[in-house]
Amino acid sequence: MALVTGAxxxxxxxCALELALRGARVAVCARKAEPLRQAAARIATASGAEVxxxxxHAGRLADLERLVEAVMExxxxxxxxxxxxxxxxxxxxxxxxxxxAWDKTFEVNLRGPLLLTSLVYRAxxxxxxxxxxxxxxxxxxxxxxxxxxxxxxxxxxxMLTRQLARELGGSGVRVxxxxxxxxxxxxxxxxxxxxxxxxRNRRRNPMQRFAQPEEVARVVGFLxxxxxxxxxxxxxxxxxxx
Length: 242
Hints:
Rossmann fold, 8 helices, alpha/beta, 7-stranded parallel beta sheet, globular, single chain, 7 strands
C-alpha cells in the first residue's frame, strides 16, 4: 500500500500511477479536493488499482495526522511513502524573500516530509519496514538563480533523507530521494516554456531537453520496490546530466 503527497498532478500523479501499475493500492493526497478526486479517478482508470483520495495540507500536522489515520483505517498499513508535495512561493534573489514566503517554503518542503515520515513510521513502518522516497530537486544540489530558498529547502531534504536512512535502517525502513531537473509540469512551467528562460535552460541541459513526469516516476517506483532492497540513503539525480 502506497501513500503519495502532492498527487493531484505532475510528478505526484505520475508516481501514484507508476506504483498502481506495479500492483500497489494507492492513497493520494493534495490540498484541493476536486483536482485530487479527478487525479484519483484517472489513476484508477489507467491502472485498475484501488485508489483513495484524501485531501490534506502537506505542511500541517493536524492534516497529516488525519491523513495517516484515514489511510490506516481504510487499509491498515502503509508500506511506501512518497513525499512529493512541494512549493515555491518566491522566484528571485534569495535576500528578497519575505519571512512568510521562507516559512511557507520550509513548512511544505521540509517540515512536511519530516512530520509525515514520523507519523507513518510510528503507525506501521517501525514494526513492519517500508520504503520512503522524497522528491527533492537538482536545485538542492546545484544553486540556481531565482530558486534560492527552494534550493536550500531541498538541500535540507537531501540531508534529512540521509539522516533518516541511517536512523531507521535497523527497522527495515529504507529512505531515499530523487533530485529531478526541470520537468515539464505546470509547477515548473516558467522554467521550460518557450521563451528566453526556457530556451536557455534547454540548451544548458546535456540532453538538450526536459524530463517528463513519467521519467521521474519510474525511478521513484524502482526505489520503492524490492528491486532496490539494499538501496538506502541515496540521493539519485534524475536531471539529464546536470
